[in-house]
Design a protein that fits this description.
Helix content: under 10%
Oligomer: single chain
Number of strands: 16
Radius of gyration: 15 Å
Largest sheet: 10 strands, parallel
Structural class: mainly beta
Shape: globular
Distance between the termini: 41 Å
Length: 171
C-alpha cells in the first residue's frame, strides 16, 4: 500500500502522486474486528493521482465521511479486483457518507467504481468514469431499499459514464 490510513480522524492528503504500488495505491479504513473496530473519519483526498497500482487505486474500508475531490484513479492492473475506487468494508463495519467529486476513474482493468455491501450514503458528482475491461460502475450485494434509519442512498449527479452495464437476477 502506498498510503495506509487506519483508524484516523481528520486527515487531509493533497497534491501527490501514488504509483506502481504492489497492492492499493491508497487505503482508508479501520483496525480491529467486529465490536472493536476503530474507523477513520473526516478524510479528504484532494488532487491525488493514483496510477498503475496492482490491486486498487483507492480502497475504502469502514469509515465515516470521506471527500475525494479533483483526483484521478487510473491504470490499476495486476490482481483482482483492479478497480479505480473500491468501497469494500466487508464484515468489519460500514462505510458511510462518501462524496466523490470532480474525479476521473479511467483505464482500470476492473471497474472504475465498485460498491459492495455495508456501504451507504455515496454521492458521485461531476466525475468521469470510464470502464476498462470490466464495468464503469459495479454495485454488488447492496440491499435495496435501504432501511429508513440509514443515511441517504447512493446518488449520481452531473457525471459522465462510459461503457456502463448492469445485470439483474431473473425474477
Amino acid at each position: 500500500v502506498g498510503i495506509d490510513i487506519l483508524a484516523s480522524p481528520k486527515v487531509f492528503v493533497h497534491h501527490l502522486k501514488v504509483s506502481n504500488c504492489w497492492g492499493d495505491g491508497i487505503y482508508v479504513g479501520a483496525i480491529g474486528g467486529v465490536g472493536t473496530t476503530a474507523i477513520s473519519s473526516d478524510v479528504t483526498l484532494s488532487h491525488v493521482l493514483s496510477t498503475n497500482n496492482r490491486r486498487q487505486g483507492l480502497s475504502m474500508g469502514p469509515l465515516t465521511r470521506i471527500y475525494v475531490v479533483s483526483s484521478t484513479f487510473s491504470e490499476t492492473n495486476g490482481t483482482a479486483p483492479q478497480d479505480g475506487i473500491d468501497i469494500e468494508p466487508q464484515t468489519q463495519g460500514t462505510t458511510r457518507n462518501v462524496r466523490i467529486e470532480g474525479c476521473t476513474l479511467t483505464g482500470n482493468t476492473g471497474s472504475g467504481l465498485e460498491l459492495a455491501q455495508h456501504v451507504t450514503g455515496v454521492t458521485v458528482v461531476s466525475t468521469t468514469i470510464s470502464a476498462g475491461a470490466a464495468d464503469g460502475i459495479a454495485i454488488s450485494r447492496v440491499e435495496i431499499p435501504m432501511p429508513p434509519w440509514l443515511p441517504p442512498p447512493t446518488r449520481l449527479a452531473r457525471s459522465t459514464f462510459h461503457r456502463i452495464s448492469s445485470s439483474a437476477a431473473p425474477r
